[in-house]
Specification:
Layout (H helix, E strand, L loop, with lengths): L1 H14 L4 H12 L1 H15 L2 H11 L1 H13 L4 H24 L9 H23 L7 H22 L8 H10 L3 H17 L1 H32 L4 H24 L7 H19 L5 H28 L6 H30 L1 H22 L9 H6 L4
């Protein structure tokens, strides 16, 4: 995924030399399938054996990557083909995310924050390695990088099947899995409604979705579209500078989660910290709008990553601690829907705003909007008061 996050946008702006609005459109094509498929993906994941299902989905990545590789080798890479690649890749990702996220449900609730942090550290160290490798685009050919990416997905598929093997025939686990798989369309709709009802009935979880959607629309949208344009337009850099910014951002995420891993007690006010981190990210985007020198840009991006890592860990910890294991894939799919549902719209609007108003003005507008949303959430939302102590939180009625 680290390779993908650098190569896909750079193919748009660095290889095809498309406009910011087209970069926003390409990003939207990658993220839009989440709106259509992530909720059904959660239902499907709750029914299936997760190891076999994830192994199959990782193999599917080879199809769009193989087509992209063939187009690059033959010299027939076009923007339309990239859009089709983004849609296909995003569709597979929509089914993978809830199934993969639900595996965190095996961790005990009292150390959930540490489990989430460990996953984040491993994930972003690996992504950082991918960023570094992708940054060598001037020295390693694009076909070689795409081939390496296909090899990694193949290994991921094999390792996922190995660490989550199928239950033995005749076992109770296999019988339960078969019963889940043989359900009608009406039962599918009922199960989907059960996942949505979780957030309808719990105001704290409901407002968690609001801030997650705002994060996808504002923070994630500007990260996806703004980061490659920062490298190309503000600092006249290439793929190496863009990859280096991604590495620094990931180091911020990793640093925060190393701290969370060492924290014995759960956060007492995780919702409050999540809102504060959202506000700080908007402020840092405002600083970048002033076009600071490179010696200041890298620390700003590093701190941006720190607050992003804290927000991701807090949101997932709140979610997993308050949802039963039977509903966890569906709950994760709703959570991811809000995050990645806001991101394509935010990416497209961010690209259009940059093209019409300029990068600096667009970043100031995003920072101002983030400040407004943060203040309203702090004053009006029960998320500001949600407690990390689950038992205590459940004992108190939701406002």
């Amino acid at each position: 995924m680290g390779l993908h996050k650098v190569l896909y946008p750079w193919l748009v702006v660095g290889v095809l030399h498309e406009s910011p609005s087209r970069l926003g459109l390409a990003t939207m094509a990658l993220l839009l399938p989440n709106l259509l498929f992530i909720l059904p993906g959660g239902v499907v994941a709750d029914r299936r054996h997760r190891g076999s299902w994830l192994s199959f989905l990782y193999l599917l990545y080879l199809l769009p990557l193989g087509i992209l590789l063939a187009a690059v080798v033959s010299g027939e890479l076009t923007f339309t083909l990239l859009l089709m690649f983004g849609i296909t890749f995003g569709t597979i990702l929509a089914f993978i995310q809830p199934a993969r996220e639900s595996l965190l449900g095996y961790a005990p609730s009292e150390v959930m924050h540490q489990a989430v942090a460990k996953v984040m550290v491993v994930q972003f160290i690996a992504q950082g390695v991918g960023f570094i490798i992708a940054g060598q685009l001037d020295y390693i050919s694009l076909p070689q990088l795409l081939s390496f990416q296909m090899l990694i997905f193949l290994l991921s598929s094999l390792l996922m099947r190995r660490c989550h093997p199928l239950p033995e025939k005749g076992s109770e686990e296999e019988a339960a899995q078969a019963e889940k798989s043989n359900k009608s369309a009406a039962q599918t709709w009922l199960e989907l409604r059960e996942g949505l009802a979780l957030f309808r009935d719990d105001k704290g979880l409901q407002h968690l979705l609001f801030i997650v959607f705002a994060t996808g629309f504002l923070a994630f949208g500007v990260y996806l579209v703004g980061m490659p344009l920062i490298a190309r337009e503000l600092y006249n850099g290439g793929a190496s500078l863009y990859a280096l910014l991604q590495v620094v951002f990931s180091l911020g995420i990793i640093s925060t989660n190393f701290g969370v891993m060492k924290r014995v007690k759960a956060f007492s006010r995780p919702g409050r910290l999540m809102v504060i981190s959202f506000l700080m990210r908007g402020s840092l985007v405002g600083i970048i709008a002033t076009v600071p020198s490179l010696w200041l840009l890298f620390p700003v991006v590093y701190v941006w990553g720190m607050f992003s890592g804290l927000s991701m860990t807090l949101g997932r910890t709140i979610l997993h601690n308050q949802v039963t294991h039977e509903l966890r894939s569906r709950a994760a799919s709703v959570y991811q829907l809000c995050l990645f549902g806001g991101a394509p719209l935010g990416a497209w609007i961010c690209g259009m705003t940059i093209e019409n108003l300029g990068l600096g003005t667009a970043f100031v507008a995003i920072a101002s909007t983030t400040l407004f949303v943060s203040v309203v959430t702090a004053l009006r939302s029960p998320l500001w008061h949600i407690r990390g102590d689950i038992e205590e939180d459940k004992a108190e009625p939701q406002q």
